[in-house]
Amino acid sequence: MDFERSLELLWRDRGEARQPTRGRKPKLTLGQVIATAVALADGAGEATVSMSRIAEELGVGTMTLYTYVPGKTELLDLMVDTVLAERGLPGPGDPRPDGWREQVRLYAERTLAVFRAHPWLRSTSMVRPVLGPGLMAGQEYLIAAVSDIGLAPRKAAAAANSIEIYVQANATLFAETVQVEQQTGQSTDAWWGQRSVFWEKYFDVERHPAMTRIWETGGYDAETCEAADETFTFGLERMLDGIEALIPH
């Protein structure tokens, strides 16, 4: 893969991206190709996206697509960054929520929403991320939220990275839940309901006294989705409490 070609496409608004084949007026735009690929992935998963399938949806020959994007690898980069840009996070100088904690909550809320809307994102590597404007806008926003609260630069960077990792991990889990429910046609609560025999026949209360105590006092009363949201919010708020404790007063 020519990673510079991928970067050129990702940052095409800078005016350096190569244009499609010369001569006749292009039948499509790169944006149309990306949008079609995203729609296919949303409907049936990223693995089902192929250049031939996209071409069929757009009513063109497969080879036509290669005048817009070199191959599927580069196309996936474009898909990922396009949906990350859907977060629409405020940029430098744009109005944003008052207070750094509210700004972080906005980042978390919009990131979770994007992963739930596009569950195939869970297969995206954040170890070797797509270095496009959608990703960088999110990182710039998050760094800006914590960079002026009184932390030393390395601690501010660590705080932003920790938040990003926590949100990403939970967003991936939520996306997997959506994807599994789509693939099986069965809700997670229904899946657990079918396994009630485990609790009735196999669960040993004497070997799991802490779990039993929490169960009997209502700790597990919430439905799966509600419990996941509560868990995420609890963890995020405790992380923000820890960061706030480091701020000089």
From TrEMBL:
<feature type="DNA-binding region" description="H-T-H motif">
    <location>
        <begin position="50"/>
        <end position="69"/>
    </location>
</feature>
<protein>
    <submittedName>
        <fullName>TetR family transcriptional regulator</fullName>
    </submittedName>
</protein>
<keyword id="KW-0804">Transcription</keyword>
<dbReference type="InterPro" id="IPR009057">
    <property type="entry name" value="Homeodomain-like_sf"/>
</dbReference>
<keyword id="KW-0805">Transcription regulation</keyword>
<dbReference type="InterPro" id="IPR036271">
    <property type="entry name" value="Tet_transcr_reg_TetR-rel_C_sf"/>
</dbReference>
<dbReference type="Pfam" id="PF02909">
    <property type="entry name" value="TetR_C_1"/>
</dbReference>
<dbReference type="Pfam" id="PF00440">
    <property type="entry name" value="TetR_N"/>
</dbReference>
<dbReference type="InterPro" id="IPR050109">
    <property type="entry name" value="HTH-type_TetR-like_transc_reg"/>
</dbReference>
<keyword id="KW-0238">DNA-binding</keyword>
<dbReference type="InterPro" id="IPR004111">
    <property type="entry name" value="Repressor_TetR_C"/>
</dbReference>
<feature type="domain" description="HTH tetR-type">
    <location>
        <begin position="27"/>
        <end position="87"/>
    </location>
</feature>
<dbReference type="InterPro" id="IPR001647">
    <property type="entry name" value="HTH_TetR"/>
</dbReference>
